[in-house]
């Protein structure tokens, strides 16, 4: 369980004291507010605050005084148009603030997305919890033989046992040493900011992460994708489910044009045109490299 009873009580209190507001409210998002959605073995994602809804995107696009909404279908059409034509600034009018608990090695990938505001738990000031990510059996995968940046089948039997034992033993030993180094027992003990350097990258950290919808969708496009590492992908998928409830029309357009869509080079587009005319196009006469051709085939099925 990623939350202590005290933390859960704080969340329950927040959820039981609704406040009135004149601001735009997304009913789908209200259902998520403050609740922790578990991810991996000790992690979670929870919404702390948000601004805007589907209508806010349209209001900004129309620079209107009031709601500016002609009808829901009108708004959906406008949102799809904006998404299709990369008219991105109206999506920046919506914001979300998340509290995320995640392993440090996932945080290293996540922090590469520079267009967010972040405040992380201080391991200089506070003592980190004894919480380490240990993969579930089906996520304990072997190195891929075809993709240097990927994984293959799950390990099994003795090999899985051996790897899990190493992961658990190393994590516990490092944490024991961390505690031993910072413990004062009559002396000062090592500074927390130094003792933490001996901890493995699967220890959990936490942060508040605030980002606008445009940049969030960019993050999700990259990190909910099959090419992203599983451990960050599951966080992105949890956020996708939240965004789908928050701004259903924008999320639906995003799924259609970004997640489900594809970009074709002019060479690839020319191949599609030749194929439609009935010409037999092969890698050799396509003008594409073997890698490009393979990806092109993946796109057109
Ligand atoms: C599958 C995968 C594998 C990866 N592998 C590696 C790897 O091996 N090594 C590695 O180092 N990284 C790797 N990355 C990270 C990747 O290179 C990007 O750093 C990361 O995805 C963030 O993307 P971004 O810069 O578009 O996002 P953001 O930082 O959120 O930026 C969003 C957009 O804002 C603009 N922007 C933001 N800051 C600047 C700036 N300073 N200058 C100009 N434009 C800016 C750009 O248009 C950018 O696309 C990988 C990412 C993925 C998804």
Automatic annotation (TrEMBL):
UniProt entry keywords in alphabetical sequence: FAD, Flavoprotein, Methyltransferase, NADP, Nucleotide biosynthesis, Transferase
Family annotation (PROSITE patterns): THYX
GO annotation (BP), single: dTMP biosynthetic process
Chain residues that bind dUMP: 109-112, 120-124, 196, 223
Active site, renumbered: 223
Obligatory cofactor(s): FAD
Pfam family, one: Thy1
Cofactor note: Binds 4 FAD per tetramer. Each FAD binding site is formed by three monomers.
Record keyword Transferase present: yes
Positions of FAD binding: 89, 112-114, 120, 212-214, 218
Catalytic activity: dUMP + (6R)-5,10-methylene-5,6,7,8-tetrahydrofolate + NADPH + H(+) = dTMP + (6S)-5,6,7,8-tetrahydrofolate + NADP(+)
Keyword NADP: yes
InterPro entries per UniProt: Thymidylate_synthase_ThyX, Thymidylate_synthase_ThyX_sf
One annotated GO molecular function: flavin adenine dinucleotide binding
Listed pathway(s): Pyrimidine metabolism; dTTP biosynthesis
Class of enzymatic activity (EC top level): transferase
Record EC number: 2.1.1.148
Function: Catalyzes the reductive methylation of 2'-deoxyuridine-5'-monophosphate (dUMP) to 2'-deoxythymidine-5'-monophosphate (dTMP) while utilizing 5,10-methylenetetrahydrofolate (mTHF) as the methyl donor, and NADPH and FADH(2) as the reductant.
Subunit description: Homotetramer.
Family, similarity comment: Belongs to the thymidylate synthase ThyX family.
Protein's name in the database: Flavin-dependent thymidylate synthase
Taxonomic lineage: Bacteria, Pseudomonadati, Pseudomonadota, Alphaproteobacteria, Rhodobacterales
């Amino acid at each position: 369980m990623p939350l202590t009873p005290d933390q859960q009580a704080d969340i329950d209190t927040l959820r039981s004291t609704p406040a009135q507001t004149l601001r735009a409210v997304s009913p789908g998002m209200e259902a998520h507010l403050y609740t922790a959605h578990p991810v991996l073995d000790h992690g979670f994602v929870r919404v702390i605050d948000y601004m805007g809804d589907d209508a806010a995107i349209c209001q900004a696009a129309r620079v209107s005084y009031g709601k500016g909404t002609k009808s829901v279908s009108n708004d959906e059409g406008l949102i799809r148009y904006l998404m299709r034509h990369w008219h991105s600034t109206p999506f920046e009018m919506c914001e979300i603030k998340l509290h995320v608990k995640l392993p440090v090695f996932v945080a290293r990938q996540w922090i590469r997305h520079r267009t967010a505001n972040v405040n992380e738990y201080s391991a200089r000031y506070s003592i980190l919890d004894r919480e380490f990510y240990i993969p579930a059996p089906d996520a304990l995968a072997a190195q891929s033989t075809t993709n240097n940046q990927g994984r293959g089948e799950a390990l099994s039997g003795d090999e899985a046992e051996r790897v899990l034992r190493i992961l658990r033993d190393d994590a516990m030993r490092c944490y024991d040493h961390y505690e031993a180094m910072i413990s004062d027992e009559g002396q000062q003990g090592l500074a927390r900011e130094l003792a933490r350097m001996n901890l493995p990258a699967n220890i959990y950290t936490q942060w508040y992460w605030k980002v606008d919808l445009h940049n969030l969708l960019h993050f999700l496009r990259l990190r909910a994708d099959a090419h992203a590492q599983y451990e960050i992908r599951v966080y992105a998928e949890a956020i996708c489910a939240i965004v789908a409830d928050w701004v259903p029309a924008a999320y639906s357009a995003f799924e259609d044009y970004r997640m489900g869509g594809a970009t074709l080079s002019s060479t690839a587009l020319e191949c599609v045109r030749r194929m439609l005319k009935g010409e037999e196009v092969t890698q050799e006469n396509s003008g594409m490299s073997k890698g490009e051709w393979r990806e092109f085939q993946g796109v057109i099925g």
